[in-house]
């Protein structure tokens, strides 16, 4: 959010709520905290072009810091709370970033206000944020988000969801990740952001906060809706103000969307994109129910979509990054399109349907898990001969991570998870199910037959060699 938007809101609506947390910050107070934090960062040596990394739960201090860093011409890099130590170290080294601990962030945001700072001249090509992404190839990459990309996404996202200054946006997904971070755009139109504060999602806490704050727009992943539907707390929850629930990151079963609307009255809108390619489509509360439940909405007016002969969704437009951080090229292929790795089609009414995916990535509760990364980590165990990681269909999370392992001796899921923890792999990537095989099935060319293993994982009766773990 350029500070000019904050200045506009703080001038025209100074007493209006900007962030609802343990305390409520008005736009005037948020503007003061942003400039105070920026000045304190400058005193600590942050200069234009520097990368400042942070990892926080959904708290007002992150909102302030996200706005303060670009005031100095520096670049903010949010890191997910669940990121493993190895991945965090890699990202910080790759971006040459300075990492701020939570206590340091709180100190910065409490610094005395010494007057507003002058932000750098507007430049749509200036990178203002670096975001961690698995990359379209499955390799770790850092997405470079420039100001023009953010402006195009803001205009498309907020207009399609009809966000107004009267809205209170409850951010269910982590602000450190793409879906939650998308909500920061709502500040630009004067909507208030509602913080959950808790580092882990709880349906009971979320429902309570939604009711207490009279939240009008809920933003998260389908898993959030599923868990809230199954929570006994939903019966007593007051979601009467929630006009819309926007979700992304994983397939939303139509029956879940229908059940959510029937029980809460909040209209489901699904949006679609990737951190590599950017946002492509968003549903609207005004769309017919069938379209809202079965599609990801219409393609943004500023973007283009193309379906290949193989049925793959491709996109291009101003919401796409120009290049990955530290690399010479971005996500565009040689044909001039970003290949999303998903299968889909555009219906006669112009709505985009996502029907499957070409990629092998496992989508667990809205978070992408690169199976090759997990396989490499599992293979480092001295008693593992070979492994293949696939997604096992799951009603609540969309998919769970399942590993088919060829081992020298019986191995349980807990032993493997302890090994992965020692390697610093993020917890959400750990296999929750392990099935031991004598050998992995191969296709004609000698490649592992992932399709056969996915079918086996989807079978209703797991074999005897399976272990289970308490994933989160």
Q: What this model shows, in words?
A:
With 472 residues, the chain is an alpha/beta fold. It has 14 helices and 24 strands. It has helices spanning 3-12, 27-43, 60-71, 85-95, 102-109, 147-160, 178-181, 203-213, 222-230, 254-264, 289-294, 371-379, 413-423, 450-457; strands at residues 17-20, 24-26, 51-54, 75-78, 98-100, 127-133, 141-146, 168-171, 192-194, 217-220, 244-247, 267-274, 278-282, 298-299, 304-307, 312-316, 338-346, 352-357, 362-364, 367-369, 384-394, 398-407, 433-436, 467-468. The strands form six sheets. It has a nine-stranded mixed β-sheet with strand order 2-1-9-8-10-11-12-13-14, with helices on both faces. A four-stranded antiparallel β-sheet has the order 15-16-17-18, with no helix packed on it. Helix 7 links the parallel strand 8 and strand 9 (192-194). Helix 1 packs antiparallel against helix 2 (27-43), helix 2 crosses helix 3 and helix 9 (222-230) crosses helix 10. The longest helix has 17 residues, at 27-43. The chain is globular and about 70 Å long. The model is unreliable at 135-139 and 462-472 (pLDDT under 50).
